[in-house]
Every structure is written in structure tokens, then in C-alpha cells.
Write a structure and sequence with these properties.
With 86 residues, the protein is an all-alpha fold. The chain has one domain (16-85). It has four helices and no strands. The chain has helices at residues 16-26, 29-34, 37-50, 58-85. The relative contact order is 0.13.
Length: 86
């Protein structure tokens, strides 16, 4: 049994082409929206391990989804407060 002990090369700059391919082939936006964040983070880790060229793009997908959920959760909280008052 041989263990690969060579360190991974440092992450480079994200590539828009790789980001598009990641979202098109591995993580469609509808799937990202419906997946719990913990499961999404696990899946992105898995994809980065299986396809090293997506290492730079997977954190962007996670950060974008966290930002999207935060933005809409604030909207939903405001709507729920408005409904309770009425």
C-alpha cells in the first residue's frame, strides 16, 4: 500500500469556465438551493477531492449560497413579522 504524501499544490485563481462546468455537471443551482448547508459543504469537499481542478471554485459556490440564504432569510423574517402584526 502506498500513501501519497506529496503536498497538494497551492490553490490558484478561480476560473469562470470551471465554475460553469461545476454548476452545470455536478451541482445544478436548483440542487444547491434545496440542499442543507451542512450536506452541501460535505458534497463540495467531496467534489474538490475527486476533481482537484474545482478546488478554487467550490468555496465560491458555498459562499454564494450562504449569502443567498442570508439575504432571503432576512426577507422572510420581515414578511413573517408583517403577517403576525396584521
Amino acid at each position: 500500500m502506498h500513501l501519497n504524501t506529496t503536498p497538494a499544490p497551492p490553490a490558484g485563481m478561480p476560473c469562470i469556465r470551471d465554475l460553469h462546468e461545476l454548476l452545470r455537471d455536478h451541482l445544478p443551482p436548483q440542487l444547491v438551493m434545496l440542499t442543507p448547508l451542512q450536506e452541501l459543504e460535505r458534497r463540495l469537499h467531496e467534489i474538490a477531492a475527486q476533481h482537484p481542478r474545482f478546488r478554487e471554485e467550490t468555496p465560491l459556490v458555498l459562499a454564494g449560497e450562504i449569502k443567498r440564504r442570508y439575504r432571503y432569510s432576512r426577507f422572510l423574517e420581515g414578511a413573517a413579522t408583517h403577517v403576525q402584526v396584521a
